[in-house]
């Protein structure tokens, strides 16, 4: 198991106590585990080394969304399984796996984890660079919001949430429109949008939760478009999304896709790739990689 040494609660955790507790929980399922704390600058290199190690069949990662996404995109296609201990602010992929949020609850859930193969998204930009993602890629309002929020100092999970609330209103005061065409499984002529996003699976509908996928095994992505129809419409769209209305949100255009291309008028734009900002070249080709990542997760509850 590898833990991002700077992620959330890991910064203040009793490392020896946490390591012993994890070893106890893993031992309950008849196997052994080593626990190491890894600095962020060495995170990708360490995950890549574990992916190459023939003696390793499972990698459990502890960190926030960025750390988990990096690990997942490295391990996708490797045949090795990945477990997640959520230590970040939003923990969106962990929520999609139905892993309890919070270090203690997640560690306690380890004996009940089972292996499952889940879908991964792939974006190829205009320069031919491939980017894998576990949760989303977004353009427009969301990347600008993240960029503005990250410029505000905060020192804790609560501080990050409060900074997000302050920045939300500030960003809405200067809405930008993005000119974009859509081709492939969905066709749209050139239109203006406040935001466009591609998500792995459909977001769960329901009040009081962060946006996360209902099912990561259906073999498709969701294209989510927010047309530029004025500030009032934008506010209503975001309010409905905030209370868990996605496919039932009349202000959004949502469609299941497996292959689609988004082309912006600008040659390069900033994108949020699982919450990490990167400037990428248009156009953007999205495809799903069905069941490309093996994960460990609690079993799905029986259908009603």
Question: Could you walk me through the main structural features you see in this protein, from its secondary elements to its overall organization?
Answer:
The structure is a single chain. The chain is α+β, with helices and mostly antiparallel strands and 304 residues long. The chain folds into two domains: 2-112, Probable inorganic polyphosphate/atp-NAD kinase, domain 1 (Rossmann fold, 3-Layer(aba) Sandwich); 122-290, Tumour Suppressor Smad4 (Sandwich), CATH 2.60.200. The protein contains eight helices and 15 strands. It has helices spanning 15-27, 43-52, 65-75, 92-96, 103-108, 141-150, 157-172, 231-242; strands at residues 2-4, 36-38, 58-63, 81-86, 114-124, 130-133, 136-140, 178-184, 188-200, 221-227, 253-257, 259-264, 268-273, 276-281, 284-297. It has a 15-stranded mixed beta sheet that branches. α1 (15-27) links the parallel β1 (2-4) and β2. α6 (141-150) crosses α7. It is globular and about 55 Å long. The two termini are 35 Å apart. The model has no long low-confidence stretch (mean pLDDT 89).
CATH topology of the largest domain: Tumour Suppressor Smad4
What proportion strand? Answer: 25-35%
Distance between the terminal alpha carbons, to the nearest Å?
Answer: 35 Å
Query: Roughly how many Å is the radius of gyration?
Result: 19 Å
Please give the number of β-strands. Answer: 15
Give the uncertain stretches in residue-range form. Answer: none
Structural classification: alpha+beta
Architecture of the largest domain in CATH? Sandwich
Summed up, the domain count is 2
Average pLDDT figure = 89
Name the overall outline: globular
Helix count from the secondary structure assignment: 8
Task: Tell me the helix content.
Answer: 25-40%
- What top-tier CATH class of the largest domain fits best? Mainly Beta
Largest sheet report: 15 strands, mixed
Order of secondary-structure elements: EHEHEHEHHEEEHHEEEHEEEEE
Looking at how many chains there are and whether they match, the oligomeric state comes to single chain
InterPro entries: ATP-NAD_kinase_N, Diacylglycerol_kinase_cat_dom, NAD/diacylglycerol_kinase_sf, YegS/DAGK_C
Organism: Oharaeibacter diazotrophicus
GO molecular function: kinase activity
Keywords: Kinase, Transferase
